[in-house]
């Protein structure tokens, strides 16, 4: 049985997946080289299901594989076989995945359906894991035989395949995790099925991966792959220019000319699966629990100027949350925004803050392109309408720790990524961190989850985004472009999801 809800922008792969056995070329032209990538932040965890960070997935996806691979090269999302060589929907709530039979873990154990079941059960059964919501609609995972597994859901789930991509669903080895005795013990010396295995993680400094000698895709391209955490933008750019790294992330536009002038390095920008937003407390005694204050914040922001002047055009202003490449994004939000400082002041007065109001505002420095500068500009716009902010600029790891502990005040800035589909809004816990509860949202969400007609479901998912935007549970500002500095010795095309797949990067 074919699931019609997966037609259109998602994929044609359900119909052809069984014919698309994914094989990786066994090229080894770079096998003696080390690839070094400078990022603005360190990884958060070695557990692929417990971080919620694209920057962490960008590293770990080279160690741990997922059942399904993503391809954005055509400008839209296409799902392709990976550890799963094919899949079929056999009933309204039932799918069967057929797995590759030639995959070994990096410790020599054989990969089977038991590992897939273990991963699903572990993730959905542990609410402490950051990605625990990923598989909540799965009611059972049943091993049919070593290379076939049946998945049952609590109802028709048109986005089931998308739950096996993005942050979190990387497959873990049942036997090795259980033999280690605990998650902590396993992740001190983890094994995956990817082309690279962990050599070392020096926290706040670097992660070093080495080529796996039994990768199912052949001999990996690089001898080692090193991810260096360099939050200081000037240092990251200097390392690129002097040859200390091959690729540098979040290169500011003012450094582009200097990078190109070397004759040995260049820059490349690309669209990314991110939105830069303000997360807003919406309940309790917080100032922003008042919807008029949230609307004032929204109207106080001159998005066009932020994009043009602060990030030098490397972005698209929007109130929305999903770039156009993401299936079921709401295009109306990409133009439905305005800058109205006068109205913002009026709303503050109506909310009882005629003389202004103060609030807490947290952001990062070096994690995203011009994140500190954008946040300083946002603070200035808010100050202009009477909203005084205590801006806290934090290192990424400190920021993530405070977020996890729910220690932020009224506002925090972030650029959320790793999106594959706008239906992620249906799965999210909106009470977490921001305390948002909206009866209209819940009604439309319930209808969307039950709807099986693709067009009707898509319309409901777009409606959900408008409800979030209109109630300012989070305030969209712009879709950022990713900007990289690259050595001329490297052939690198950025991915829309910002994941670094070392096997897709070549030496010239």
From TrEMBL:
Entry similarity comment: Belongs to the bacterial solute-binding protein 5 family.
Claim: Signal is one of the keywords in the record: yes
Xref: Pfam families: SBP_bac_5
UniProt source species: Rhizobium puerariae
Keyword set, alphabetical order: Signal, Transport
Signal peptide as annotated in the record: 1-28
InterPro entries assigned to the protein according to its UniProt record, in alphabetical order: Peptide/Ni-bd, SBP_5, SBP_5_dom
Start and end residues of each Solute-binding protein family domain: 79-429
Record localization: Periplasm
Source domain of life: Bacteria
Protein name listed in UniProt: ABC transporter substrate-binding protein
């Amino acid at each position: 049985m074919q699931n019609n809800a997966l037609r259109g922008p998602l994929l044609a792969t359900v119909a052809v997946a069984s014919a698309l056995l994914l094989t990786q070329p066994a090229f080894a032209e770079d096998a003696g080289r080390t690839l070094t990538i400078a990022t603005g932040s360190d990884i958060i965890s070695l557990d692929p299901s417990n971080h919620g960070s694209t920057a962490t997935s960008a590293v770990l996806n080279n160690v741990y594989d997922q059942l399904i691979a993503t391809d954005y090269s055509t400008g839209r999302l296409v799902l392709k076989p990976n550890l799963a060589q094919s899949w079929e929907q056999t009933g309204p709530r039932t799918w069967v995945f057929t797995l590759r039979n030639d995959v070994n873990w990096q410790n020599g154990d054989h990969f089977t359906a038991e590992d897939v079941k273990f991963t699903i059960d572990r993730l959905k059964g542990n609410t402490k894991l950051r990605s625990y919501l990923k598989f909540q609609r799965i009611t059972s995972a049943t091993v049919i035989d070593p290379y076939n597994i049946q998945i049952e859901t609590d109802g028709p789930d048109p986005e089931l395949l998308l739950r096996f991509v993005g942050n979190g669903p990387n497959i873990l080895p049942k036997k090795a995790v259980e033999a280690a005795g605990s998650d902590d013990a396993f992740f001190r010396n983890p094994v995956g099925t990817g082309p690279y295995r962990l050599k070392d993680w020096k926290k706040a400094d670097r992660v070093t991966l080495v080529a796996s000698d039994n990768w199912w895709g052949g001999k990996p391209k690089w001898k080692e792959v090193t991810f260096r955490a360099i939050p200081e933008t000037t240092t990251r750019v200097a390392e690129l220019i002097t040859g200390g790294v091959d690729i540098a992330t979040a290169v500011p536009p003012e450094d582009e000319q200097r990078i190109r002038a070397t004759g040995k390095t260049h820059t490349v920008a690309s669209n990314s699966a991110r939105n830069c937003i303000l997360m807003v407390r919406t309940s309790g005694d917080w100032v922003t629990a008042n919807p008029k204050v949230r609307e004032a914040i929204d109207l106080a922001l001159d998005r066009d100027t932020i994009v043009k002047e602060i990030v030098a055009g490397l972005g698209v202003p929007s109130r929305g949350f999903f770039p156009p490449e993401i299936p079921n994004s709401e295009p109306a939000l990409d133009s439905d925004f305005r800058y109205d400082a006068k109205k913002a002041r009026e709303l503050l007065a109506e909310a009882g803050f005629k003389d202004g109001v103060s609030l807490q505002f947290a952001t990062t420095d070096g994690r995203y392109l011009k994140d500190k500068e954008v946040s300083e500009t946002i603070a200035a716009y808010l100050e202009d309408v009477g909203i005084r902010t205590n801006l806290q600029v934090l290192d990424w790891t400190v920021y993530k720790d405070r977020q996890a502990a729910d220690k932020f005040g009224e506002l925090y800035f972030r650029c959320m990524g790793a999106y594959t589909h706008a239906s992620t809004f249906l799965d999210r816990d909106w009470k977490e961190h921001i305390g948002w509860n909206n009866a209209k949202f819940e009604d439309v969400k319930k209808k969307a989850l039950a709807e099986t007609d693709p067009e009707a479901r898509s319309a409901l998912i777009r409606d959900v985004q408008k409800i979030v935007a209109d109630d300012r549970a989070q305030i969209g500002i712009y879709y950022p472009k990713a900007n990289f500095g690259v050595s001329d010795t490297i052939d690198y095309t950025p991915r829309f999801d910002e994941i670094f797949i070392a096997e897709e990067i070549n030496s010239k």
